[in-house]
Amino acid sequence: MTYNNAYAQYNNSKVLTASPAELTLMLYDGAIKFCNIAIMAVGQNDITKTHTNIVKAEKIVDYLRSTLDMRYEVSKDFERVYVYLQRRLVEANMQKDIVIIEEVRTHLQSMRDTWKEVMAINKDKNYTPQPMEANA
């Protein structure tokens, strides 16, 4: 078994055994990673790589938005943020603008960090939070 195959199997196992809260955290991590790659690609003038990774980040934000449970008031706030992030990612992709991608990444990092804190607080209480993006 090659290293890449073993790594892929590990990641697949990690996803399959993750709780809904952990999956949400992974989605934030993925969107942040794709923003980082897009930033580097813009710096390298690699238009294709920039586009590909911005689109990957857009798809994650779109997925997070599409799974919001709108019965909760806070979901409306998240929806507004996700709509804004999607719009900014489209602008970043059209302009290949590092500043916009960095702005989106900063927002995603903040949301990720907050989500991780919620998970930690609830873990201490032996409670697994259900992400606002889950249960759709």
Index terms:
136 residues; mainly alpha; Four Helix Bundle (Hemerythrin (Met), subunit A); globular
Describe this structure in words.
By secondary structure, the protein is mainly α. It has one domain (20-124): Up-down Bundle (Four Helix Bundle (Hemerythrin (Met), subunit A)). Helices cover 80% and strands 0% of the residues. The protein is built from 5 helices and no strands. Helix 2 (20-43) packs antiparallel against helix 5 (98-124), helix 3 packs antiparallel against helix 4 (73-95) and helix 4 packs antiparallel against helix 5 (98-124).
Order of helices and strands: HHHHH
Rg measurement, Å = 16 Å
**What CATH architecture would you give?**
Up-down Bundle
- What number is the mean pLDDT? 89
- Approximate shape: globular
CATH superfamily: Flagellar protein FliS
Percentage of residues in strands = under 5%
Number of domains: 1
Structural class: mainly alpha
Instruction: Give the % helix.
Output: over 70%
Regarding quaternary structure, what we see is: single chain
CATH top-level class:
Mainly Alpha
Layout of strands and helices, then pairs:
Blueprint: H1 3-17, H2 20-43, H3 47-66, H4 73-95, H5 98-124
Helix pairs in contact: 2-3, 2-5, 3-4, 4-5
Short description:
The protein is built from 5 helices and no strands.
